[in-house]
Amino acid sequence: MNTTPLILISFTAIAAALGLLTALRPELTRVRGGKIFAFMALCILPALAMWAGVNEHLERSTSTQFCLSCHVMADFGKSLYVDDKSYIPAVHFQNHFVPPDHACFTCHTDYTLFGDYKAKWRGVHHVLVEYLGTIPKPEDIKLYTAYNNRECLHCHAGMRKYEETSSHHKNPEMLAQAASNQLSCISSGCHDTVHDVANLKDATFWTPKENGK
Amino acid sequence: MTATVMERRIRLSGLLVVVGLLLQMLTLPMTHPLAFVGFILLGCPLVAAGMLFFLYLLVSHETP
Lengths: 213, 64
Hints:
- The structure holds two protein chains of two kinds.
- Chain A has two domains: 4-60; 73-207, no CATH class.
- Chain A contains ten helices and no strands.
- Chain A has helices at residues 4-24, 32-60, 64-67, 74-78, 88-94, 103-107, 115-132, 149-156, 160-164, 174-179.
- The longest helix of chain A has 29 residues, at 32-60.
- Chain B has a domain at 15-27 and 37-64.
- Chain B is built from two helices and no strands.
- Chain B has helices spanning 3-27, 33-60.
- In chain B, helix 1 runs antiparallel to helix 2.
- The A-B interface holds A 5, 8-9, 12-13, 15-16, 19-20, 22-24, 26-27, 29-30, 38-39, 41-43, 46-47, 49-50, 53-54, 56-57, 60-61, 63, 65-66, 69-70, 123-124, 126-128, 130-131 and B 3, 6-8, 10-15, 17-18, 20-22, 24-25, 27-29, 31-37, 39-41, 43-44, 47-48, 50-51, 54-55, 58.
Protein backbone atom coordinates (compact mmCIF):
# COMPACT_ATOMS: atom_id res chain seq x y z
CA MET A 1 0.00 0.00 0.00
CA ASN A 2 1.25 3.48 -0.83
CA THR A 3 1.96 5.21 2.47
CA THR A 4 2.59 8.69 1.02
CA PRO A 5 -1.05 9.88 1.34
CA LEU A 6 -1.21 8.64 4.94
CA ILE A 7 1.99 10.48 5.85
CA LEU A 8 0.70 13.59 4.10
CA ILE A 9 -2.69 13.42 5.80
CA SER A 10 -0.99 13.01 9.18
CA PHE A 11 1.33 15.93 8.50
CA THR A 12 -1.57 18.14 7.36
CA ALA A 13 -3.56 17.13 10.44
CA ILE A 14 -0.67 18.13 12.71
CA ALA A 15 -0.31 21.46 10.89
CA ALA A 16 -4.08 22.05 11.19
CA ALA A 17 -4.03 21.18 14.91
CA LEU A 18 -1.19 23.62 15.59
CA GLY A 19 -2.93 26.27 13.47
CA LEU A 20 -6.11 25.73 15.45
CA LEU A 21 -4.24 26.06 18.71
CA THR A 22 -2.83 29.40 17.53
CA ALA A 23 -6.28 30.54 16.38
CA LEU A 24 -7.88 29.61 19.70
CA ARG A 25 -5.06 30.99 21.87
CA PRO A 26 -3.69 34.03 20.00
CA GLU A 27 -2.45 35.46 23.31
CA LEU A 28 0.38 32.94 22.96
CA THR A 29 2.01 35.42 20.60
CA ARG A 30 2.61 37.91 23.40
CA VAL A 31 5.88 36.16 24.24
CA ARG A 32 8.83 35.48 21.93
CA GLY A 33 8.38 31.69 22.02
CA GLY A 34 4.72 32.07 21.13
CA LYS A 35 5.59 34.29 18.18
CA ILE A 36 7.96 31.65 16.83
CA PHE A 37 5.31 28.99 17.42
CA ALA A 38 2.70 31.04 15.55
CA PHE A 39 5.10 31.61 12.67
CA MET A 40 5.72 27.86 12.44
CA ALA A 41 2.02 27.00 12.79
CA LEU A 42 0.64 29.64 10.42
CA CYS A 43 3.41 29.87 7.81
CA ILE A 44 6.04 27.17 7.69
CA LEU A 45 3.95 24.06 8.34
CA PRO A 46 0.97 25.07 6.14
CA ALA A 47 3.39 25.99 3.33
CA LEU A 48 5.09 22.60 3.58
CA ALA A 49 1.75 20.77 3.75
CA MET A 50 0.48 22.69 0.73
CA TRP A 51 3.63 22.07 -1.30
CA ALA A 52 3.60 18.34 -0.51
CA GLY A 53 -0.13 18.12 -1.22
CA VAL A 54 0.19 19.90 -4.58
CA ASN A 55 2.97 17.49 -5.57
CA GLU A 56 0.94 14.47 -4.52
CA HIS A 57 -2.18 15.66 -6.35
CA LEU A 58 -0.24 16.58 -9.49
CA GLU A 59 1.45 13.18 -9.51
CA ARG A 60 -1.83 11.39 -8.91
CA SER A 61 -3.55 13.38 -11.63
CA THR A 62 -1.24 11.79 -14.19
CA SER A 63 -2.69 8.33 -13.51
CA THR A 64 -4.92 6.48 -15.96
CA GLN A 65 -7.39 5.83 -13.13
CA PHE A 66 -7.68 9.60 -12.55
CA CYS A 67 -8.41 10.40 -16.21
CA LEU A 68 -10.93 7.59 -16.55
CA SER A 69 -12.82 8.52 -13.39
CA CYS A 70 -14.99 10.90 -15.43
CA HIS A 71 -17.84 8.98 -17.04
CA VAL A 72 -17.34 10.60 -20.44
CA MET A 73 -13.85 9.09 -20.63
CA ALA A 74 -15.07 5.50 -20.19
CA ASP A 75 -15.10 4.72 -23.92
CA PHE A 76 -11.60 6.10 -24.32
CA GLY A 77 -10.48 3.78 -21.53
CA LYS A 78 -12.27 0.90 -23.26
CA SER A 79 -10.47 1.68 -26.52
CA LEU A 80 -7.18 0.82 -24.80
CA TYR A 81 -8.30 -2.81 -24.73
CA VAL A 82 -9.30 -3.16 -28.40
CA ASP A 83 -7.75 -6.30 -29.86
CA ASP A 84 -6.60 -4.67 -33.09
CA LYS A 85 -3.05 -3.60 -33.86
CA SER A 86 -4.21 -0.66 -35.97
CA TYR A 87 -5.51 1.08 -32.81
CA ILE A 88 -2.48 3.13 -31.83
CA PRO A 89 -3.42 3.75 -28.16
CA ALA A 90 -4.37 0.09 -27.65
CA VAL A 91 -1.04 -1.17 -29.02
CA HIS A 92 0.89 1.24 -26.81
CA PHE A 93 -1.14 0.41 -23.72
CA GLN A 94 -1.28 -3.37 -24.10
CA ASN A 95 2.42 -3.74 -24.89
CA HIS A 96 3.50 -1.28 -22.19
CA PHE A 97 5.06 1.06 -24.78
CA VAL A 98 3.58 3.65 -22.42
CA PRO A 99 3.31 2.99 -18.67
CA PRO A 100 -0.21 1.48 -18.34
CA ASP A 101 -0.91 3.34 -15.11
CA HIS A 102 0.00 6.67 -16.74
CA ALA A 103 -1.22 5.90 -20.25
CA CYS A 104 -3.36 8.97 -20.97
CA PHE A 105 -0.90 11.49 -19.60
CA THR A 106 2.07 10.02 -21.47
CA CYS A 107 0.57 10.76 -24.88
CA HIS A 108 -1.67 13.73 -24.06
CA THR A 109 0.91 16.02 -22.54
CA ASP A 110 2.91 18.50 -24.55
CA TYR A 111 6.59 17.73 -24.07
CA THR A 112 7.39 21.39 -23.56
CA LEU A 113 8.48 23.47 -20.57
CA PHE A 114 4.95 24.13 -19.33
CA GLY A 115 3.28 21.14 -21.00
CA ASP A 116 2.33 19.48 -17.71
CA TYR A 117 0.77 22.66 -16.36
CA LYS A 118 -1.09 23.36 -19.59
CA ALA A 119 -2.50 19.83 -19.43
CA LYS A 120 -3.60 20.32 -15.83
CA TRP A 121 -5.20 23.67 -16.62
CA ARG A 122 -7.15 22.06 -19.46
CA GLY A 123 -8.10 19.30 -17.00
CA VAL A 124 -9.58 21.85 -14.58
CA HIS A 125 -11.64 23.21 -17.49
CA HIS A 126 -12.82 19.65 -18.26
CA VAL A 127 -13.96 19.18 -14.65
CA LEU A 128 -15.98 22.39 -14.83
CA VAL A 129 -17.62 21.21 -18.05
CA GLU A 130 -18.31 17.77 -16.50
CA TYR A 131 -20.17 19.28 -13.54
CA LEU A 132 -21.43 22.65 -14.74
CA GLY A 133 -21.56 22.48 -18.53
CA THR A 134 -22.95 20.31 -21.28
CA ILE A 135 -21.01 17.08 -21.58
CA PRO A 136 -20.32 16.20 -25.20
CA LYS A 137 -20.75 12.67 -26.54
CA PRO A 138 -17.48 10.71 -26.44
CA GLU A 139 -17.30 10.62 -30.25
CA ASP A 140 -17.64 14.42 -30.39
CA ILE A 141 -14.64 15.03 -28.13
CA LYS A 142 -11.77 16.42 -30.15
CA LEU A 143 -8.28 17.62 -29.33
CA TYR A 144 -7.85 21.38 -28.93
CA THR A 145 -5.16 21.42 -31.59
CA ALA A 146 -3.91 18.89 -34.11
CA TYR A 147 -1.80 16.20 -32.45
CA ASN A 148 1.82 17.23 -32.61
CA ASN A 149 4.39 14.67 -33.79
CA ARG A 150 6.64 15.95 -31.01
CA GLU A 151 4.63 13.82 -28.57
CA CYS A 152 5.24 10.67 -30.65
CA LEU A 153 8.88 11.48 -31.30
CA HIS A 154 9.53 12.05 -27.63
CA CYS A 155 9.90 8.25 -27.53
CA HIS A 156 10.20 7.19 -31.16
CA ALA A 157 12.92 9.56 -32.33
CA GLY A 158 16.19 7.69 -32.56
CA MET A 159 14.45 4.34 -32.24
CA ARG A 160 15.89 1.81 -34.69
CA LYS A 161 12.50 0.40 -35.70
CA TYR A 162 11.15 3.89 -36.36
CA GLU A 163 14.14 5.03 -38.38
CA GLU A 164 14.73 1.86 -40.41
CA THR A 165 11.21 0.68 -41.20
CA SER A 166 10.71 0.75 -44.97
CA SER A 167 7.38 2.59 -44.84
CA HIS A 168 9.16 5.54 -43.26
CA HIS A 169 11.40 5.81 -46.34
CA LYS A 170 8.72 6.01 -49.02
CA ASN A 171 10.24 9.35 -49.79
CA PRO A 172 13.67 10.48 -48.61
CA GLU A 173 12.27 13.54 -46.81
CA MET A 174 9.71 11.61 -44.77
CA LEU A 175 11.54 11.45 -41.44
CA ALA A 176 12.61 15.09 -41.69
CA GLN A 177 9.03 16.13 -42.48
CA ALA A 178 7.75 14.12 -39.52
CA ALA A 179 10.36 15.68 -37.25
CA SER A 180 9.32 19.17 -38.31
CA ASN A 181 5.63 18.26 -37.91
CA GLN A 182 4.92 18.96 -41.60
CA LEU A 183 3.80 15.38 -42.07
CA SER A 184 1.50 14.17 -39.31
CA CYS A 185 2.05 10.67 -37.97
CA ILE A 186 -1.64 10.15 -37.24
CA SER A 187 -3.53 12.17 -39.82
CA SER A 188 -1.52 11.47 -42.96
CA GLY A 189 -3.23 8.14 -43.57
CA CYS A 190 -0.53 6.06 -41.86
CA HIS A 191 -1.36 5.65 -38.17
CA ASP A 192 -4.82 7.13 -38.34
CA THR A 193 -6.83 4.76 -36.14
CA VAL A 194 -6.59 6.31 -32.73
CA HIS A 195 -9.31 5.88 -30.07
CA ASP A 196 -12.10 5.68 -32.67
CA VAL A 197 -14.74 5.53 -29.93
CA ALA A 198 -17.59 5.82 -32.45
CA ASN A 199 -16.87 2.30 -33.71
CA LEU A 200 -16.13 0.53 -30.46
CA LYS A 201 -19.35 -1.50 -30.57
CA ASP A 202 -17.99 -3.50 -33.50
CA ALA A 203 -14.57 -4.08 -31.94
CA THR A 204 -13.27 -7.13 -30.12
CA PHE A 205 -11.43 -6.65 -26.86
CA TRP A 206 -8.36 -8.07 -25.21
CA THR A 207 -8.77 -9.31 -21.67
CA PRO A 208 -5.55 -9.15 -19.65
CA LYS A 209 -4.77 -12.22 -17.58
CA GLU A 210 -4.92 -11.55 -13.88
CA ASN A 211 -1.59 -10.95 -12.14
CA GLY A 212 0.13 -11.20 -15.52
CA LYS A 213 -0.06 -15.04 -15.51
CA MET B 1 -2.78 48.59 17.11
CA THR B 2 -3.92 47.10 20.42
CA ALA B 3 -2.99 43.56 21.38
CA THR B 4 -6.64 42.54 21.24
CA VAL B 5 -7.10 43.71 17.67
CA MET B 6 -3.84 42.01 16.71
CA GLU B 7 -4.89 38.79 18.40
CA ARG B 8 -8.29 38.88 16.74
CA ARG B 9 -6.56 39.17 13.40
CA ILE B 10 -4.18 36.32 14.21
CA ARG B 11 -7.24 34.26 15.09
CA LEU B 12 -8.78 35.06 11.70
CA SER B 13 -5.60 34.17 9.87
CA GLY B 14 -5.34 30.93 11.89
CA LEU B 15 -8.91 29.99 11.06
CA LEU B 16 -8.31 30.58 7.34
CA VAL B 17 -5.26 28.32 7.48
CA VAL B 18 -7.10 25.64 9.45
CA VAL B 19 -10.14 25.58 7.15
CA GLY B 20 -7.82 25.38 4.12
CA LEU B 21 -5.78 22.58 5.64
CA LEU B 22 -8.91 20.64 6.59
CA LEU B 23 -10.19 20.92 3.02
CA GLN B 24 -6.81 19.74 1.74
CA MET B 25 -6.93 16.83 4.18
CA LEU B 26 -10.35 15.80 2.93
CA THR B 27 -9.18 15.72 -0.68
CA LEU B 28 -5.93 13.85 -0.07
CA PRO B 29 -7.36 10.31 0.22
CA MET B 30 -9.22 10.67 -3.10
CA THR B 31 -7.90 10.14 -6.63
CA HIS B 32 -10.57 12.07 -8.48
CA PRO B 33 -10.63 15.27 -10.56
CA LEU B 34 -13.04 16.90 -8.09
CA ALA B 35 -10.55 16.27 -5.27
CA PHE B 36 -7.82 17.84 -7.38
CA VAL B 37 -9.93 20.91 -8.14
CA GLY B 38 -11.04 21.18 -4.51
CA PHE B 39 -7.43 21.09 -3.38
CA ILE B 40 -6.12 23.56 -5.94
CA LEU B 41 -9.04 26.00 -6.13
CA LEU B 42 -10.35 25.93 -2.54
CA GLY B 43 -7.79 24.51 -0.12
CA CYS B 44 -4.69 26.25 -1.46
CA PRO B 45 -6.20 29.76 -1.75
CA LEU B 46 -7.57 29.57 1.82
CA VAL B 47 -4.23 28.46 3.26
CA ALA B 48 -2.36 31.03 1.17
CA ALA B 49 -4.77 33.78 2.27
CA GLY B 50 -4.27 32.86 5.94
CA MET B 51 -0.49 32.77 5.57
CA LEU B 52 -0.32 36.06 3.69
CA PHE B 53 -2.63 37.74 6.17
CA PHE B 54 -0.42 36.54 9.03
CA LEU B 55 2.72 37.78 7.26
CA TYR B 56 0.99 41.11 6.64
CA LEU B 57 0.21 41.34 10.36
CA LEU B 58 3.88 40.74 11.14
CA VAL B 59 5.13 43.52 8.89
CA SER B 60 2.35 45.98 9.72
CA HIS B 61 2.67 45.54 13.48
CA GLU B 62 4.06 48.64 15.17
CA THR B 63 6.21 47.84 18.17
CA PRO B 64 5.63 50.29 21.07
